[in-house]
From TrEMBL:
Active site as annotated: 56
Gene that this sequence comes from: LOC112407551
Record protein name field: Aldo-keto reductase family 1 member C3 homolog
GO molecular function terms noted in the UniProt entry: oxidoreductase activity
Domain NADP-dependent oxidoreductase: 20-301
Pfam families, alphabetized: Aldo_ket_red
Species of origin: Neophocaena asiaeorientalis asiaeorientalis
Length: 324
């Protein structure tokens, strides 16, 4: 069995997702050229799972890095698992493939491994990522998410995406897709904010019962420079319990946080563009937490989110406040 397969989770469509992925969302202060360098570094370190999105506006740089690493023989396209996401202004069924094709063109790829609905919230189509009215309020769109899902199924059938899933969905929203008449493909995963301060235990239990993988973003907490991140939250990696466990294993708090997710059967996205931390995070497969460690980390849960967006909060599908 290859190393990539060994550290992967099998999805409900038969494909495999590497358990550890590189997150690529970055605040505006980070130059796009840094993303390109980070992808090349990460591939050299051994990362094979790269997570991005149409909305991150960095897929051209990611595409260049991937093409260079394929050209120099470090990887083949089939070695990589690449995720992109459908942005909320493209939820009308006739626009879903357009968004994906735009990403593919920037990436210089013929397919993505995973295509996700980014949020269960549709916004008015157009050039603006967050279309607003004259009062500064976001203009939502009325789209049945089940028809959006059907358009993703077509992208899979046409070979533009090997697998399809969702992000930021709660149990109720997942059930809406799962109970859709004529459902052709179940979501393979649900990507959500998940870390020891927000362990998503109920959502994880639900997803496991439906054979849907949970993928953790902000697995290490989050970068306070990002617009959507609450600035007054405690820093996860400074947590004393986490640091005590890290010292015991002679590991970093980040390594322990990632290992926690992997032992729960959760795929984890770690965002770091720093070469030393990229290497450290990838060493997460080299040690194991004890049942007592896992119990202590479970005990850190405080249902605390780093990601909050007030401008979306009055939408009925706003997903961040309830697991069900």
């Amino acid at each position: 069995m290859s190393q990539t397969r060994l550290f992967s989770l099998k999805m409900n469509d038969g494909f495999f997702m590497p358990m550890l992925g590189l997150g690529t969302s970055a605040p505006p202060q980070v130059a796009k050229s840094e993303v390109e360098k980070a992808i090349k570094r990460a591939i050299d370190v051994g990362y094979r799972h790269i997570d991005s999105a149409y909305m991150y506006q960095n897929e051209e740089e990611i595409g260049r890095a991937i093409q260079m690493k394929i050209a120099d023989g470090t990887v083949k396209r089939g070695d990589l698992f690449y995720t992109t996401k459908l942005w909320s202004t493209f939820f009308r069924p006739e626009l879903v493939q357009t968004c994906l094709e735009s990403s593919l063109k920037k990436l210089q790829l013929s397919y993505v491994d995973l295509y996700l609905i980014h949020f269960p919230i549709a916004m008015k189509p157009g050039e603006d990522f967050f279309p607003k009215d004259t009062h500064g309020n976001i203009i939502f769109d009325t789209v049945d998410l089940c028809t959006t899902w059907e358009a993703l199924e077509k992208c899979k059938d046409e070979g533009l995406a090997k697998s399809i899933g969702v992000s930021n969905f709660n149990c109720k929203q997942l059930e809406m897709i799962l109970n859709k008449p004529g459902l052709k493909y179940k979501p393979v995963c649900n990507q959500v904010e998940c870390h020891p301060y927000l362990n998503q235990s109920k959502l994880l239990e639900f997803c496991k019962s439906k054979d849907i993988l949970l993928v953790a973003y902000a697995a290490l907490g989050s970068d306070l420079r990002k617009k959507w991140v609450k600035k007054d939250n405690p820093v996860l990696l400074q947590d004393p319990v986490l640091n005590t466990i890290a010292e015991k294993h002679r590991r970093t708090p980040a390594q322990v946080t990632l290992r926690y997710q992997l032992q729960r059967g959760v795929a984890a996205l770690a965002k770091s563009f720093n070469e030393k931390r990229l290497k450290e995070n990838f060493q997460v497969f080299e040690f194991q937490l004890t049942p007592e460690d896992m119990q202590s980390l479970d005990g850190l849960n405080r249902n605390m989110r780093y990601f909050e967006e007030d401008s979306l909060s009055h939408h009925p599908n706003y997903p961040f406040h309830v697991e069900y």
